[in-house]
Amino acid sequence: MEAARQTHAAGKVQDYLKQIGRVVVIEGKELAVFRTSGDEFYALENRNPHPKGGPLAEGIVSGHYLYDPLYDWKIDLRTGEVQAPDKGQAAVYPVHIDGDTIFIGI
Q1: What CATH number does the domain located at 7-105 have?
Q2: What is the full DSSP assignment across 2-63?
Q3: Which residues contact 92 (CB under 8 A, 6 or more apart)?
Q4: What residues pair up with 12 in beta bridges, in sequence order?
Q5: What are the sequence ranges of the domains in the chain?
Q6: Mind listing the pLDDT tens digit for each residue in 12-62?
Q7: In which order are the strands placed within the sheet that holds 101-105?
Q8: Which band of pLDDT confidence, cut at 50, 70 and 90, is reported for residue 4?
Q9: 8 A C-beta contact, residue 9 and residue 100
């Protein structure tokens, strides 16, 4: 049985630029938080699933996808799934907004 997630405040909506990743550390986990041009928020572990690793926060956001310029990978922000022909999975964390505060579940 999975333990219940706790939510943690991760700043205000206005603290996040659209289509730019921001690193947030919660409970020792380094997360990459993204705000899309449509004002949707996504949080992924800030660790590229590529065998050589690297940060995800430096990727380029377009729609619901993150483009990693280092390895030319495309990752779905909603699921963390690396798109074909590449394979891999980034850990995703639930995000919700209450008022103007962003909360992330860990």
Answers
A1: 2.102.10.10
A2: PPPPPEEEEEEGGGS-BT--EEEEETTEEEEEEE-TTS-EEEEESS--STT---STTSEEET
A3: 42, 43, 44, 45, 77, 78, 79, 80
A4: 101
A5: 7-105
A6: 999 999 999 999 999 999 999 999 999 999 999 999 999 999 999 999 999
A7: 7-12, 101-105, 95-98
A8: low
A9: no
Mean pLDDT, the chain, rounded, equals: 93
Q: C-alpha 42: how far from its chain's center?
A: 5
Q: Quick one: tokens of 3?
A: 């333990």
- State the Cα–Cα distance between residues 37 and 32, nearest whole angstrom: 16
Supply 2's token pair. Answer: 């999975």
Q: For residue 83, what is the DSSP state?
A: P
> Rounded to whole angstroms, how far apart are CA atoms 45 and 80?
9
Half-sphere exposure of 26 toward its Cβ, with a 13 Å CA cutoff?
25
Gyration radius from the chain CA atoms: 13
Max CA pair span of the chain = 40
